[in-house]
Write a structure and sequence with these properties.
Shape: elongated
Number of helices: 4
Structural class: alpha/beta
Order of helices and strands: HEHEEEEEEHEH
Helix content: 25-40%
Largest sheet: 5 strands, mixed, barrel
Oligomer: single chain
Length: 245
């Protein structure tokens, strides 16, 4: 076997090893995703509890819990999470501070993602038309705030629009303390009136493309090894031919 073929073999084996490792990593991520999805399904399907019952539990414990809330909505302080879409149409998500009526949260309001409203520019809506009852009675899912981001959260061109659901910024704008979680209001997600909010459906529990990526990495590893075997055989056949001459 020639020195060149040996060098090619070393590179092929190393490449195959890296590809196999990446394939196993993707399968590990798939297992993690399935475990998270199973936990989310369990929490979503559990009987709803009142917002006061979850108290000040860590958000990682109550994330995706099914809850009920009855409280007074402050529509004058609500904001638009800009550049959202639903069913392919541009719009905003309405972020409404709600004060629970049971008094368990004191002066703290709960931020409710009340729904989607169509907005051609992805920023502005008819706030008066988007109102619901002054006292809201909702079923909802507990969500976490977006991770804190660098850069501008507010949109300078639109006074009541934000780019990210950042708790510190929203507390500053709304001038009130907010609970350390967001509620995703549940209900009809169909848009019958473009000026009225349609509920935002919960994120789908997709497993992602981890399995297909794993198969691709394993295929690359196979190609590397098969390629080396083919080159080695060709090298041997050439050596035999040269010897016969």
């Amino acid at each position: 076997m020639s020195r060149r073929t040996i060098l090619f073999g070393v590179v092929a084996v190393l490449a195959a090893g890296v590809c196999v490792r990446l394939g196993l990593w993707q399968l590990d991520r798939l297992d993690q995703k399935r475990a998270v999805n199973a936990l989310v399904r369990e929490r979503r399907s559990a009987p709803p509890v009142t917002i006061s019952a979850i108290g000040s539990q860590d958000t990682s414990v109550i994330h995706w819990r099914h809850v009920t809330i009855r409280g007074v909505a402050d529509y004058d302080a609500e904001l638009a999470h800009a550049t959202r879409s639903q069913s392919g149409a541009p719009g905003v998500h309405l972020l409404t501070p709600v004060r629970p009526l049971d008094g368990a949260w004191g002066d703290t309001s709960i931020l409710v993602l009340r729904g989607y409203v169509y907005a051609p520019d992805g920023r502005t809506v008819d706030w008066a038309m988007a109102r619901e009852a002054d006292t809201l009675a909702l079923e909802a899912l507990v969500m976490e705030y977006s991770p804190t981001r660098e850069g501008a959260v507010r949109m300078p061109s639109t006074a009541r629009a934000v780019r990210f659901v950042d708790r510190d910024t929203l507390q500053s704008i709304m001038q009130r303390p907010l609970a350390p979680f967001v509620l995703l209001a549940l209900g009809d997600s169909a848009t019958r009136d473009v000026n009225r909010p349609a509920r935002v459906p919960p994120p789908s529990l997709s497993e992602g493309a981890h399995q297909s990526y794993a198969f691709q990495w394993f295929a690359f590893a196979t190609v590397a090894i098969v390629g080396f075997v083919a080159v080695a055989r060709a090298d041997q056949q050439k050596a035999r031919g040269d010897g016969a001459m």
